[in-house]
Amino acid sequence: MMIGAMPALAQVAPLPGGTSAEPAATADTVTDPFSGEVQGADDADAATTDGEIVVTGFRGSLDRALNIKRNEAGAVDTILAEDMADFPDLNLAESIQRLPGVTIERDGGQGRTISVRGLGADFTRVRINGLEAQAAAGGNRSRGFDFSIFASELFNSITVRKTQSAEIEEGSLGATVDLQTGRALDFGAGIHGAVAGQASYNDLSEKTLPRLAGLLSWANDDETFGALVSVAYSERRPTSESFNTTRWQSGNPAQAYGAGNNFAGCVTCTTAEQRSEVLSAFYPRIPRYTIGSFSEDRLGLTGSLQWKPTEDTEIILDGLYSRFNQEAESPNIEAISFSRAAGGVRETVLREYEIDREKNTLSYGVFDNVDVRSENGFSRDESRFLQVSLNARHAFTDRFRGFLKLGSSHSKLRTPLSVSYMFDALNVDGFTYDFRGNDRLPQISYGFDVTDGRNFTLTEWRRSTGGADYRLKTAAGRLEYDLTDDLTIKAGAEYRTYGFDTFGFQQAVSALTGADRATDVTNLGKIETIAGGLDIPAGTDLNYIVPDIFAINDVLTRYNDPLIPAFNGTREVQEEDTGAFAQVDFDTLVGGLTVRGNVGLRYAHTQTTSSGFLGADGGVAEPEYVDVDNGYSNWLPSFNLAVEPAEDLVVRLGAAKVISRPSLGDLTPGGTLSIPTRRVTYGNPLLAPFQATNYDASVEWYFAPEALLAAAVFYKKVDSFINTADPEMVPWRSLGLPDSLLAGTPASPDEDFEVIRRVNGEGGTLKGIELQYQQPFTFLPGVLNNTGFIGNVTFIDSDVNYGASGRNRLTGQSNLIYNATLYYEDDRFSARASAAYRDDYLVSFPGGNGNSEEGVNATLNIDASISYEVTDGVRLSVEAINLTDEYSDRYVDATNRVSNYRHFGREFLIGARASF
């Protein structure tokens, strides 16, 4: 029950059952690639002839979306407002995941970023009201768009463009996503509005919180001018419980006990074979059960002024503001010896053990001389997004038109406070872990009373603050001329600037001394309990003392000491993108067949200045702030063709050269420089973009009213993927770094340096098949004719050369994804049940600490909703999200060792909406 459905207010009320005997006549409905605006959708809603009835509501929006897909030249999928209204989604990402080939990455119990056809957030461009935008939350420092800061209620339509045309700005290897907010003339003359409220309950945190939304629009009687405002506000207090290990690592039998990552000894190892087996087996680096509590509030506002003095002229001014705040506290207790060599694992003695030979892991162990740490951290993240945009069009003649768009956006991310404290108990005997009964939820016992503050000492602390800013500005124009009724010539240009900067400050010293180093922490701690849905084995320590953040803040003598710059967290990228295109659109009959499409060429020039701190020794006392310039140009041809060999059949072909610019974090020249060893470790400000050639083909059969059966194949040949190169000897002069860094040192700019950096590595391929089926079951008897189905499945395969690490699939790519929704809708009652499945995928390759890879196992999320219209304009609803309480299961190594096994519980929402 989302306010995003308000455009449906202008629709004709459906008959009982929400069906019509015959499909209504509809106007062409397409989305403008230049502005991202859905064109003709409202005309389609209102189109009727005598004796014909328009299908409205949820089914009506599905039908309009099919009309858009059918009339496009390229591969496009669209969600319209009623769809978003009826899916039980917490935010925008979860609405988008319903589309074919789209899946999401979840964090904090909700969707944050999207992946399209196996390509993740960094390869996907997002535009809001026609302008490229960047939204950031949490620790995001990439080009990936964070959808979690926006509520679905703020948007009128979502369009995902999977093929490229010259008129669409470059920057995507996967897809361009257009988000459009509502406009007043969508609703017609007069005053229209709606208000909605929901109560949201999480069964793990056991808290109930509000979700509120409202919309008000006005247009004059002539429908030449209108204004609209909308607002959405929500709160969440999710709780997480998990078991995690960070990673697993092993020792080395070629080394002595107490060397490298080897234990100090093994009491029960009596033979050389046993010793070798133990030191070769992997053990968890930080085995622990964790709790996380979160507090979120999200506020979104939109405003629009729309002036349409004639059919030939239209000017739209849009504004969008979003605020997303999150506070998080993470109290944990863990054995930290295994993650530290000196003073840690090298002093730990293995007393008893058992080895899982299939996974080569120490599945059970009893240990002496173990360091146990209880820690607690608190952070507050504040995200702000503001965009103002102007879209204008004017028809100078019946054949000649012009379009203009101007705008800017600012995404501001701040972490005003991040603080954590550590209690330590050193050299504890009898620590035990046991994975033999459950490799995701082991039994853990610390060997002493972990609730007694007298057993711990306050030893360390961390405090930091930081932030990031993303600033985008766009000026673009396009001219169109209809050379004939079947042929249109388009040409345009744009200029965009992209500014990114990030900063950080941290405490100078982490170790606590003197009066701050409390040896009895009873009054500085609080007792935490893991008592939720985790099926933790008996014998596990479920209660433990952790630092009380705010109690310690009040007594720590150095809490208000000045923070010092975190040089590795301070960097900047300034980018200027200049582009121009020429394109020919055609829509004609060839041999009695409808043929439409476009062919075009885009030119793009990119100029960057990347900055960061490069710390040096051998003559430079302080890190130096370094600026490096880079530039590159690309010619990008594209072609899209849609042929209708039969009345209800569409065959599509598409091909394009595309680019995606490097991740912002990879462009930093910041890092370290060692003059004595002639060694440099940094990002790489001279990176070239990802480049690929995309091929697409599809067949779409609109075999019945409101129905579709479609199949699409795609193939992407990527010239190079950016990865970290092995150390190599490189001339200093080729690095782009200033010679001033070597001034006063023995080093010369003519020398070779050993360099570790990000490079444009080997390429790879990505290919897949999408299948899509959608149909209302109007042919079924009785009430069953009010049911229907929407579903899609995507199979993806990739092959990437990771250089010395070998070949594997692309990180972030699942081999199988599917979405399915079964719905029922009559004149009063509607119900939905939706499933979203994502197969396992890689997070990194190779993995750390000797693991072959790191990834996330498959997930299946089930959501449902029901609603009932009690009177005209008033509807009650109940929704359920994550009905099965699906766990996020992150793993390391191909043997599937547990890394983080986490859940956030189910959410239930009950609410009402009234419209007028």
UniProtKB/TrEMBL annotation:
Organism superkingdom: Bacteria
Source organism (scientific name): Croceibacterium mercuriale
Compartments, as annotated in UniProt: Cell outer membrane
GO cellular component, one term: cell outer membrane
Residue ranges occupied by any TonB-dependent receptor-like beta-barrel domain in the UniProt entry: 429-883
Name listed for the protein in its UniProt record: TonB-dependent receptor
Lineage of the species this protein comes from: Bacteria, Pseudomonadati, Pseudomonadota, Alphaproteobacteria, Sphingomonadales
Similarity comment: family membership: Belongs to the TonB-dependent receptor family.
Cited CDD domains: ligand_gated_channel
Gene3D superfamilies: TonB-dependent receptor, beta-barrel domain, TonB-dependent receptor, plug domain
Keywords: Cell outer membrane, Membrane, TonB box
Chain positions covered by the region annotation Disordered: 17-46
Residue span(s) of domain TonB-dependent receptor plug: 69-175
